[in-house]
Design a protein that fits this description.
- By secondary structure, the chain is an alpha+beta fold.
- The chain is built from five helices and four strands; from the N terminus they run αααβαββαβ.
- It folds into two domains: 41 residues, Arc Repressor Mutant, subunit A (Orthogonal Bundle); 76 residues, Alpha-Beta Plaits (2-Layer Sandwich).
- It has a four-stranded antiparallel sheet.
Amino acid sequence: MNELDSFDLSILKVLQEDSSIHMQALAERVNLSKTPCWRRVKKLEESGYIRKYVALLDHRKLGLSVMAYVQVSMKDHDLNTLQVFLDFVEQSPYILDCHATAGNFDYVMKVIAADTEELENFLMRELLSSGVIQSTNTNLILRQKKSTTELPVK
């Protein structure tokens, strides 16, 4: 699938709002009949525009009330060091996002925990004890003003 037409874009927009929508309702929302709509969704999935479907959970209701951005500087940029770090990131349930960055730090991570004590334990006993981190800078998130997974589909 090379280019997306207005039907494809409409499908993507609706699915971002509610991925559990039934195919008939989706077809009606985007002005298609059910079978052509289903075919388009399958093509969007197969071509990688739709990677997966998820349920978005309320972190507060799950007792996860502390979020922070943690900037990380690596001790070195040896391939083994980076692999140790990336393996740690993949296995840690505390890390929601991790991005390589340009600037004073190598990575920035969005981290979640139940409370500040759990965050401190994660930082001191897990992240920093991994042996590959030179330094970190942690910014607590006081209040979340916007959080979305929706991309600006036009």
